[in-house]
Write a structure and sequence with these properties.
The protein is of the alpha/beta class. The chain folds into 4 domains: 7-222, Class II aldolase/adducin N-terminal domain (L-fuculose-1-phosphate Aldolase), CATH 3.40.225; 235-393, no CATH class; 404-579 and 614-641, Rossmann fold; 582-613. The chain contains 24 helices and 19 strands.
């Protein structure tokens, strides 16, 4: 456990709140302390209102903010006294608690503070840190007797109570009994760690010390993890599993690799996992237990759904509306582990929680047992009205959320525009191009570029396997790669020019689709879109290789539409013309072409029936219509994106 405190950085903080934000960020940067919003921090100070009156105040981490990324904007300022008065009540409903705490905000537009705001208020110290440290939770869930051995009388260990007002009452009792001053920290069974002090560094140092000692104890008992070396997981099996989970969820999901375990330990670990999550909030991210997936993924997901329905127990809880009975993570009998999520963020959270969970379960197996929260406690949290309210307020999914797309020839121009449009609509997009610039133009976790020669079958199959391994499957292929050379008649053209045009503009597309089909057939609303050309309907002299290859590509599209319709895969083509915002059209080339027609460059760009300029993005929007549900009942179609061309019409 690294202590990240830096005197120089701390000295730059100009207020209590900035110092609070500084140490909060130190905590949030360590995923072994907090994962994706887990944990919270606070500081007590003074607030001067617009009338110059000073109030005792507390700033508490706001709900939805990430400790590792936020600064002072991630805290909500509250009047301290009303919170202390609330803590003197013996009962307060969840809804009333949220309302009363929000009424104590200095700014009515501020974000909702953490549900543990009253807990932070009750602790009579200036700085309070709360984390869900993995090492402490691992011991809490598997060998709590070790705490005495590790900490002696330095740390107070309290039994689990539900977060929120119940936890505030527990802390009120501890404070009234004068226990806080006797200990440097408090460990909440199955929940996490609290440290507190009058200055930020002491509270932070104590947190690091508590967790460091827990990590050292675990290391001495179970040793470092050694990840088994497994054969690569079958890509089609990954796609099948993701399809089964998507069907159970009722929408497309992504599936990310989340580590691996010894194949012989899969069933034992899954059984351990049924005895509680690492920390309570993980049930929100990952449901109460994983699926086990073998050779028949659909049956495995049906088994999970049955177990989940029994866990929710609607007969005894008729007021509940059950969430989709689909797993958020799964152990495969091969030893591979994967997460699932309706978008990249949710799948990433699930992956990170899964990796922390499997490591904790590994340690627990060495220590002898695992016992987290009961099913009743987990269900109360998963279906807690406060969590349900958060879900209701979430924005609707984007049109292509959970979808996985490949765009060939995506480094620049039309391909790059198509990739961006698909990403805007929520898809994870992988671009394929021989141009190495794609590594910088598509360089994010959910917007990746791969350098690949699309005429090399080995490289194409490897790229497709990488996409499926990385994200779970394949739903959309935009086949765009192409080259264009003009000015050579059929009589004068070198054979190499003809061969290269057909290799890139036609044969490479067939090869890409050939190897994509085994994954597309397990995709969600799978679709293929070819980028053709106006030259298909209206060829021009001096461009025979390009025109013939694009005509062949269009015929390939029509044949594929016939062959794949029975599997629910739509296949269509978009025919652009006069798209000048690409690298192909340099200022010199534009001027030369415009001069040939006796036009200005502006006139040349708009020489279509609508008198408009056609952009790469216009082509991307047409592609999106074929894959986002707008034209879901269309296949084998050709759509011009040319502003209206009299020769085509």
């Amino acid at each position: 456990m690294q202590n990240r405190w830096n005197d120089g950085d701390a000295a730059l903080c100009r207020s209590d709140l900035e110092l609070r934000a500084y140490t909060s960020r130190l905590i949030g940067l360590d995923t072994d302390l907090v994962l994706h919003g887990g944990g919270n921090t606070s500081v007590k100070s003074l607030h001067r209102d617009r009338f110059g009156v000073e109030h005792e105040a507390i700033w508490v981490k706001a709900s939805g903010y990430d400790l590792g990324q936020m600064w002072t904007e991630g805290f909500t300022g509250l009047q301290l006294n009303p919170l202390l008065q609330l803590a003197q009540l013996d009962h307060l409903s969840d809804a009333d608690m949220v309302n009363e705490v929000n009424c104590a905000r200095f700014d009515s537009n501020a974000a909702n503070p953490s549900i543990e705001a009253i807990v932070h208020a009750v602790i009579p110290f200036k700085f309070v840190d709360h984390t869900h440290a993995n090492a402490v939770l691992t011991i809490s869930n598997s060998a709590p007797a070790m705490f005495k051995e590790i900490y002696g009388d330095d740390v107070l260990v309290l039994p689990y109570v539900k977060p929120g007002f119940d936890l505030a009452l527990q802390f009120r009792d501890v404070v009234e009994r004068g226990l806080l001053e006797q200990y440097t920290a408090i460990i909440l069974q199955h929940h996490g760690v609290f440290t507190y002090a009058e200055n930020a560094r002491t509270a932070y140092d104590r947190m690091i010390d508590v967790v460091e000692r827990a990590e050292a104890a675990l290391a001495s008992k179970v040793g470092a993890a050694v990840r088994p070396v497994l054969a690569a997981q079958n890509s089609v099996e990954i796609a099948l599993a993701r399809k089964a989970v998507s069907d159970a969820c009722g929408k497309a999901v992504l599936s990310l690799p989340a580590g691996c375990v010894e194949p012989g330990q899969v069933h034992a670990m899954a059984e351990q996992a049924r005895h509680g999550t690492l920390t309570p909030e993980h049930v929100i991210h990952n449901k109460p237990f994983p699926a086990i997936i073998g050779e028949r993924p659909a049956e495995a997901i049906a088994t999970f759904a049955s177990a989940y329905e029994s866990y929710v127990d609607l007969h005894n809880n008729p007021h509940l509306t059950m969430m989709p009975a689909a797993p958020h993570w799964a152990l495969f009998e091969t030893g591979h582990v994967r997460s699932f999520g309706v978008n990249f963020k949710r799948a990433t959270i699930s992956r990170d929680v899964t990796e922390a969970t499997t490591e904790a379960l590994r340690c627990a197996a060495e220590l002898g047992s695992w016992q987290g929260l009961s099913s009743d406690d987990l269900r109360d949290l998963e279906y807690w009205e406060l969590e349900q309210d958060k879900l209701k307020k979430q924005k609707p999914d984007a049109d292509l959320a959970g979808k996985i797309a490949i765009v060939s020839g995506a480094a620049t121009g039309i391909g790059h525009a198509c990739a961006h449009v698909l990403r805007e609509r929520g898809a994870v997009v992988v671009g394929l191009d021989i141009n190495p610039i794609i590594l910088s133009s598509m360089s994010e976790a959910d917007f990746q570029g791969i350098v690949v020669d699309l005429t090399d079958e080995v490289l194409v199959t490897a790229a497709l396997a990488h996409v499926v391994e990385s994200f779970g499957g394949l739903d959309i292929v935009v086949s765009n790669a192409g080259i264009f050379e003009t000015g050579q008649t059929v009589e004068t053209m070198e054979n190499a020019v003809w061969d290269a045009a057909l290799a890139v503009n036609l044969t490479s597309h067939r090869m890409l689709i050939k190897h994509a089909i085994p994954f597309l057939r397990h995709g969600i609303d799978p679709a293929i879109v070819f980028i053709g050309s106006r030259n298909v309907a209206a060829p021009g002299g001096g461009a025979s290789a390009y025109s013939v290859s694009k005509a062949g590509l269009t015929q390939l599209m029509r044949v594929l539409a016939l062959e794949l319709a029975g599997e629910g895969i739509t296949v269509n083509a978009v025919h652009p013309d006069a798209v000048f915002d690409t690298n192909l059209w340099t200022p010199e080339a534009l001027k030369k072409s415009a001069d040939r027609y006796g036009l200005s460059i502006a006139q040349y760009k708009t020489r279509n029936l609508l008198g408009c300029e056609v952009t790469s993005r216009d082509v991307g929007l047409a592609v999106a219509a074929f894959v986002d549900g707008t034209l879901s009942r269309t296949t084998g179609a050709q759509m011009p994106v040319d502003g209206g061309n009299d020769r085509v019409i």
